[in-house]
Amino acid sequence: MYSADVDYYRATSVADAAKMLRKNKGAKLLAGGHSLIPAMKLRVAQPTLLVDIGHIKNLSGIKAGKKGDQNRCADHTHSGGCFGGA
C-alpha cells in the first residue's frame, strides 16, 4: 500500500523547519525516513507535510558537549562514521 498525498518542504535552517512545523499542525520531520516512510506506506502515519531537515549543515553529525548536553544529529548515517563507518 502507498501513502496518501503529502506535501514536501526542504528546510534551509532549524528556524525555517520550526516555522513550518508551527504553521502546519500535521507536519512531521524527515531526516532519513527509515521509520516514517514505511509507516506512511502502511498508513499508520499520515502527515500532511514532510519537513526535510536532512540537509541542514549544523545538524550534521554528532558533537560531544559538556555532560548533560543534548546532541543533535539529523544526518546520522553509517557512512558518516556515526556507527563505525569510514
Short description:
This protein has 86 residues and is an alpha/beta fold. The chain has helices at residues 14-23, 36-41, and strands at residues 7-10, 27-30, 49-52. The protein has a 3-stranded parallel β-sheet, covered by helices on one side.
Which helices and strands occur, and which strands form pairs?
Elements: E1 7-10, H1 14-23, E2 27-30, H2 36-41, E3 49-52
Parallel strand pairs: 1-3, 2-3
What is the CATH superfamily? Uridine Diphospho-n-acetylenolpyruvylglucosamine Reductase, domain 2
Structural class based on helices, strands and sheet pairing? alpha/beta
Number of helices: 2
The largest beta-sheet arranges its strands as: 1-3-2
Annotated CATH topology:
Uridine Diphospho-n-acetylenolpyruvylglucosamine Reductase, domain 2
**What is the 3D shape?**
globular
Q: Give the beta-strand count.
A: 3
Major sheet size, sense and barrel closure: 3 strands, parallel
- What percent of residues adopt helix (DSSP H or I)? 10-25%
CATH architecture: 2-Layer Sandwich
Give the DSSP E fraction (strand runs of 2 or more residues).
5-15%
Instruction: Just give the CATH class.
Output: Alpha Beta
Q: Tell me the radius of gyration.
A: 15 Å
Which regions contain 5 or more consecutive residues with pLDDT less than 50?
Answer: 74-86
Count of spatially separate domains: 1
Order of helices and strands: EHEHE
Q: Termini, distance in Å?
A: 36 Å
The average pLDDT value, as a whole number, equals 77
